[in-house]
Structure formats: C-alpha cells, structure tokens
Amino acid sequence: MQCEKCHIRSATVHLRDDTYGRDSVLNLCLSCATKALGQDLAGGEVAQLIGELIAKTSPAGASGHGPAAPTLMADPTCLCPQCGLTAAEFAHLGRLGCPTCYQTFAKDIEALLQGTHGRTEHQGGRPHAETAPEPARSTEREVLQVELEQAVAEEAFERAAQLRDALRRLS
After folding, report:
1. CA 148 to CA 160: how far, in whole Å?
2. Domain spans, the chain
3. C-alpha to C-alpha distance for 147 and 140, rounded to whole angstroms
C-alpha cells in the first residue's frame, strides 16, 4: 500500500481517527508520518519500544519458554547506503529493502535469529540430491519407433527386428 501523502514510499504507519463518530485511517510512510506527528518515529526510542513490544507479544518472550526477542537494535540510526532503510524501519517492517541491507544489518539479523531460533547456524536436514529422472516410457517408445522406421527404410532388417523386440519389451 502506498503512502497517501507522498504516493512514493510504502505506507508503514496507519493513523486512525475516530473524531465525530466517523472512523478514518490515514496510511503514511515513515517520513510523512514523522512530519505529520512532529515526532521522530525512526529514532532509537521507537526501536526500543518496538523491540519491547515484540518481546512481550512473542510466544518465547511472553511465556518464558525460550529466549525472548532482542529489545534493542545494535544501532537504531544505522542506515543502508543503497536503499536508505534505517535499523528502526527494519525493526518495524520486519523485512529488508535490498541485498545490501543484509550486510548493513548483519548484527541485527544475527541477534534476531538467535532470539527466534536459539542459534544462528542452520541445524536440520539437507535436501536430497536430485536424481536424474528416468526417461518416460512414451518418449523411449517414440524414439524406438522412429529408429525402427529408419531401419526398415534402409532395409536393415536385423536391426529392425532388434528394435521391434525392444518395443515389445516396453509394452
């Protein structure tokens, strides 16, 4: 969903207004919402609040069974040099903006994986190596049929008899 003010960036902030008994929602990007509210929504305090909220609402953090989600980003003001995504926006959106974000927010991603899965390296099964599929019987039959016709046309009757027998074995 696009920002209803600038129509450029994705709307990540949804302001609800129910004054005069009329419920309305204004969908804004982080930049436009910051200007509209006069508050720095991408600052460290918001990132801390989001982290605390995640820790309270995540099953691991709320139940006490397992590690809670990290409450603070390594550096909430960290900025991706390619797409401009901040660490606070990453914490809010829960997704990255470009391939460079993986290097920029490596510490945050590692902390997130550690908090969610209890480890940062893959521990599990590996996909089996794909075996080459056997040729379909119909394809093999078609190839043998063409070779048989060629052998008959060339009057190579011994070869034609072998191909005929091979076709019968496929049936």
Report:
1. 5
2. 1-39, 42-117, 137-170
3. 11
